[in-house]
Amino acid sequence: MSEQIGVSFILTVIFGFIFAIVYLGVRRKERMALLEKGVEPSFFISKKTSSTTLKFGMLLVGVAIGLLLGNILAKTHMLDEETAYFSMTFLFGGAGLIINYFIEKKNQEK
User: Fold this and answer.
1) pLDDT tens per residue across span 14-34
2) Other CB atoms closer than 10 Å to residue 103's CB: what's the count?
3) Measured between alpha carbons, how far is 97 from 99 in angstroms, rounded to an integer?
4) pTM value?
């Protein structure tokens, strides 16, 4: 079983690298074409980096808390191991995204 996981992980990484190289190559060509047409370079700088960083930070903190709580529930035999991990990970990951939504909504009102 672990050999299958290893093979699938390696294939995923290989296809991920191929996709990233092709995507970055196409994006570079598009950007160069836009620059040749006179678009300002500041057009390519994202203005939403702080909200994106907050979103991913909240999501990852929620997933980490979910994994910890899932481990506690699995060790105390309150839930099956798979059920505990998946349910708590999705529950707290989703809660992190919901909290992020309310934080962004509050910041936009100001």
Assistant:
1) 999 999 999 888 888 888 888
2) 14
3) 5
4) 0.55
> What domain range is 103 assigned to?
46-110
Phi, psi for 108 (deg, rounded to 5): -75, -30
| 24, two tokens | 């970055």
> Are 91 and 69 contained in the same domain?
yes
How many domains would you assign to the chain?
Answer: 2
51, 104 Cβ separation under 8 angstroms: yes
pLDDT tens column, 25-83: 888 888 888 888 888 777 777 665 567 888 899 999 999 999 999 999 989 988 888 88
Residues 106, 94: one domain?
yes
